[in-house]
Structures are given as structure tokens and as C-alpha cells.
Design brief:
The chain is an all-alpha fold. The chain has one domain: Na+/H+ antiporter like fold, CATH 1.20.1530. It contains 15 helices and no strands. Helices cover about 75% and strands about 0% of the residues.
């Protein structure tokens, strides 16, 4: 660590707190996720050299969110998710086909090769898509990164605004009784001693998951181990709001620092493509959410958050804020994460390897 790094972390933290405070004063949605994210994005693009955010802090936020997701994955909630597996497969497949269609159009308009646009459009984890891009030939890694990050940021910003718009008559999504929505009646004292057991288990599961290349390990590891411990009979205490807000800030700052437009060669074209494809993808997710809400009789907010092509941590935090059905949202996001992680990379390599062999044979 350089001598000035603690100072830079402090500057980043102060900027994030200022952004969150402004969002609170303006009564904007998700103030401690969106406020820090936007404030740090602006600040870092003005003075990039004085902003930094250690990955360990972001991972801590992910562990907290993973724990809260695990609290909602009770035995009854998991049974409910199991009954929805056919619907999950249908909706995930439709969403991925829609993404593939968007990639075809954007590729033809921009002149960028289809493989690059496709990897930028698939709503998987950012790290996973970048690893796949690095392992593939003829991929513009910068374009993939920018499209993925811009899409994620648009979803984090636009989905809450959409849910709070007149298109959604009620903000409540039927998840009022999920553990995230329950205040800890005993305050901080009510956390102990059980929070110590869960804290150690969640941290270890995140670290081990990362070492074995588990997808979004610092989120899914704690979520899974928390659910297992709860089903085994150990009751997990609900976290105070200040810890949930802190987790949002930790993640929001990290996302805000991901995007650096100065690294793009053709900024206007790439950003325009990223914003355009992101907007179409959000519109498509909204259309699919209407179908989902009709078929499964869930609230419109729950349907949109379940299908929104963002990260499970951000969508779960938004579900918490608007009172959506968190087990359903987490279940759909979790299913898509695993589906993309296990099914997309081999399919991607198989399809394009086949196309490459066919082209070589013809030539």
C-alpha cells in the first residue's frame, strides 16, 4: 500500500457519504447505493488519481448482502422457488435470446464484430464475461467492459426510477414479511451471539468460494451458507438499517469506479452503443416482466426485479427497499447467474468454434 492510499480511500469515502447525503435530502430512491455511485463516478473522472476503493471493502458489502439474501431463503421460500423452475428456465432463455437479437442489430450498426457485442450484451457477472472475453479470439475487451458496466449502471439507476413511476401503481411487492423487512427489535444487542457464528461462516464461505472460482463467491457463498444454517435451526438475526446502508455504499462506490470513459478510443460511438443497447434491454426486461407477472401472479415490482439484467446484489437491495418478494427476486437472479455461468461459456465457444471451422472449410 502506498503512503497516500489511506488518504485516497478517505477522500473516496467522504465523496460517497456526500453523494448519499444529497440523495437522502432529495428523497431519491436507493440513496446509499445510487448516491455514492454517482458522486464517485463524477469525482473519479475529474480527479482519477485521488480515488481508490480496495476490493476487500466491496467484498465486505457483498458478504453483508449475501447474508441478508440467505435470511430470506427459508425452507418454504426454497420450496416455492423449486415450483418456479420451469418458469425460471423459460424467462431466462427468452431474456438471453432477446440479448442475442440486440447484439445482432448493434453489431451491424456499429461494424463491431458480433462476438464482442454479444459478450457485452449478455447479462452475466462482469468478471465472468471479462474472463470469457479474455479467453476468446477477436474480442475487443474494452468495448465488452464498457457495455457491461454501462448496462449495469443504467439498470441500477433506471429500474428504481421505473418502479417508482406511474407504470407501477404500488411500490409494495408482497415481500413485507421477508427477514430483510423486519427490524431488529432488540437493536444491536439482538445480533449477538448468533451473528458471530453467521459472520465467520459467511466470511469463510466467501473466501473459499473465491478460491475455487465460484460465481460471485462473496455474494452466493454467504447466501447459501446462511440458508443452510437457518434450515438447520440456527436463527439469523436481522441487521440494523445502518449496516444495510453501509453495504450499499461499499458496493455503490465500487461500481462507480469501474467506468472510465477516458480509456475509450471512440468514446461517443461506444458509449452511444452501450446506452442504446442498455435501454432496449431494459425495455425488453420490462416487457417480459409483464408476461411473468401475468403467468405467475406476482407483483409488477417483483417481476421486473426478478428479470432485470443487473447483479443479484443490486436487485436484491432494490427489492428490499421497495418491499418486493425477495425470495422470488433472489431465486430468479440466482438461477440466471448459474445458468449463464455454466451454460453460456461452453455454448459460446461451441457455436463460434463451429462457425470458425465452417468458414475455414469453405475458404
Amino acid at each position: 500500500m502506498t503512503p497516500r492510499k489511506p488518504l485516497y480511500v478517505l477522500i473516496t469515502l467522504i465523496t460517497a457519504l456526500a453523494g448519499g447525503g444529497i440523495f437522502v435530502l432529495l428523497h431519491l430512491p436507493l440513496p446509499w447505493l445510487l448516491g455514492p455511485m454517482i458522486a464517485v463516478l463524477i469525482g473519479s473522472n475529474l480527479r482519477k488519481q485521488v480515488y481508490t476503493w480496495p476490493g476487500q471493502i466491496r467484498n465486505t458489502g457483498m458478504i453483508i448482502v449475501g447474508y441478508t439474501i440467505g435470511l430470506s431463503l427459508t425452507g418454504s421460500a426454497l420450496n416455492q422457488i423449486a415450483f418456479q423452475l420451469p418458469s425460471m428456465l423459460l424467462m431466462t432463455t427468452l431474456l438471453l435470446l432477446f440479448c442475442a437479437g440486440i447484439a445482432v442489430i448493434v453489431s451491424k450498426i456499429s461494424g463491431t464484430n458480433y462476438k464482442t457485442i454479444l459478450l457485452g450484451s449478455i447479462p452475466g457477472g462482469l468478471t465472468q464475461m471479462l474472463v470469457l472475453a479474455e479467453e476468446s479470439e477477436d474480442i475487443n475487451l474494452t468495448v465488452v467492459t464498457v457495455i457491461q458496466v454501462v448496462r449495469l449502471m443504467m439498470i441500477i439507476i433506471c429500474v428504481p426510477l421505473l418502479i417508482y413511476s406511474p407504470l407501477f401503481p404500488s411500490h409494495a411487492g408482497g415481500g413485507e414479511n421477508t427477514p430483510l423487512m423486519v427490524e431488529s427489535a432488540a437493536g444491536w444487542g439482538g445480533l449477538f451471539p448468533n451473528i458471530l457464528y453467521f459472520g465467520v461462516a459467511c466470511t469463510v464461505s466467501g473466501i473459499v468460494g473465491q478460491k475455487i472460482n465460484f460465481p460471485t463467491a462473496y455474494l452466493l457463498g454467504p447466501a447459501i451458507i446462511t440458508a443452510i444454517l437457518q434450515i438447520s435451526g440456527l436463527q439469523g438475526p436481522a441487521l440494523p438499517d445502518i449496516l444495510i446502508n453501509a453495504a450499499q455504499l461499499m458496493i455503490g462506490v465500487y461500481v462507480g469506479l469501474l467506468l472510465d470513459p477516458r480509456k475509450l478510443n471512440n468514446k461517443l460511438l461506444t458509449l452511444s452503443l452501450a446506452v442504446g443497447s442498455g435501454a432496449v434491454l431494459i425495455a425488453g426486461a420490462y416487457g417480459l416482466s409483464l408476461l411473468f407477472a401475468y403467468l405467475d401472479s406476482v407483483s409488477s415490482a417483483t417481476a421486473l426485479l426478478s428479470l432485470a439484467p443487473g447483479g443479484m446484489d443490486q436487485m436484491s437491495l432494490i427489492a428490499h427497499e421497495v418491499g418486493a418478494d425477495l425470495p422470488t427476486v433472489a431465486g430468479y437472479q440466482l438461477f440466471r447467474t448459474f445458468f449463464i455461468f455454466f451454460a453460456v461459456p461452453p455454448l459460446f465457444k461451441l457455436i463460434f468454434r463451429g462457425k470458425k471451422s465452417k468458414t475455414a472449410t469453405i475458404s
